[in-house]
Amino acid sequence: MNFIESLKEIIEKPEVLSQEKIPAGFAVFGMLGYILGILGLFVYLRLYVPIMPGVISTISFLILVIAFEFLFASTLHMIMDLTGMKGKASAIFFAFGGSDFVLTMMVPVAFITEINPTLGYLSFLMVMVATLSVRVKLVRLIYPVSTNRAVFTLWLPCCAFLGLMLGAFVYITFWGMWILFEL
How many helices (H) and strands (E) does the chain have? Predict the structure, then answer.
């Protein structure tokens, strides 16, 4: 069974994601979604942020984002498991890969931003909201939860990560000031 047939099965019967056995081609579909979505995001960032060109930079960015997505999916699964909701961690990881297909729209958004920066910013926000909406829907399909709980569960790991980054920034800032004033 190839990934297109498994995608067709998931679209026709979304309750397949909440079952014990997910379709065979779903893993290929999820990884392909990660690769294409992250490549679209990389192209967008490459045009507007000073990222090194080349194959090694692209592959390292891909590995870094997939590792972050794996951490994000496992944290989400752990939160759901601690609250008594049963689901599969692999299903949520590969489903998030499928939701990253939306990020392939970042390439046209990059060209829209070149024409009109305001319209490009709104297009960027629309792509991010669409990705979040797809992820909320997928969490609701895999775990039997309400929309509010799915949104809360999606934002909780993001807030924890941002809190850690803020703490690291404050620590590095104070450490740098201490080093400067000691000299």
Answer: 7, 0
DSSP 8-state assignment for residue 83: T
Helices 147-182 and 117-142, interaxial angle, to 10°? 120
Give CB contacts under 8 A, 24+ apart, made by 143-146: 143/18, 143/80, 143/85, 143/86, 143/87, 144/18, 144/85, 145/80, 145/85
Q: Report the domain count for the chain.
A: 1
User: How do residues 105-146 score in pLDDT, each as one tens digit?
Assistant: 888 888 888 888 888 788 888 888 999 998 998 888 888 888
Task: Give the domain range for residue 121.
Answer: 3-182
pLDDT in tens, 167-183: 999 999 999 888 888 86
Torsion over CA: 154, 157, 160, 166 (sign): negative
pTM of the model: 0.80
